[in-house]
Design brief:
Length: 149
Amino acid sequence: MMQLNLPTYECRLREQNGRQQIFDVLRRRYVALTPEEWVRQHFVHYLIEHKGYPKGLLANEVNLRVGEKHLRCDTVLYDKALHPKIIVEYKAPEIAITQKVFNQITVYNMLLHVDYLIVSNGMQHYCCQMDYEQNRYTFLSDIPNYDQL
């Protein structure tokens, strides 16, 4: 897998049935190693180890339902009362971060109504803070540390 614009960590890899897998610390199991999963695992470790996010308040692959449609958020951070606080959407490194990606995360936010949205392809990272009273959002220059939320 390629080098990302994220700190490295000592990831746990294995091969099973001819397929590469990576250990997901949040789901506590090995999952298929895809380019998007490579980004997810590095980003989750970045949030935990460098930004101070509590592992116990993060969840990967969060299922949402809108009528008959099933959606899945890549990562969600919850506050201590277990209300969603941040949605993170990942793309593979070769996928450009476009308006389409932001439209996707916005659909999730219609259900979760979080304070922050983060999008990353491992090379570029965007974070915006929602302002529901003013009906706008502000892009931040950096992803906030947990104690700044």
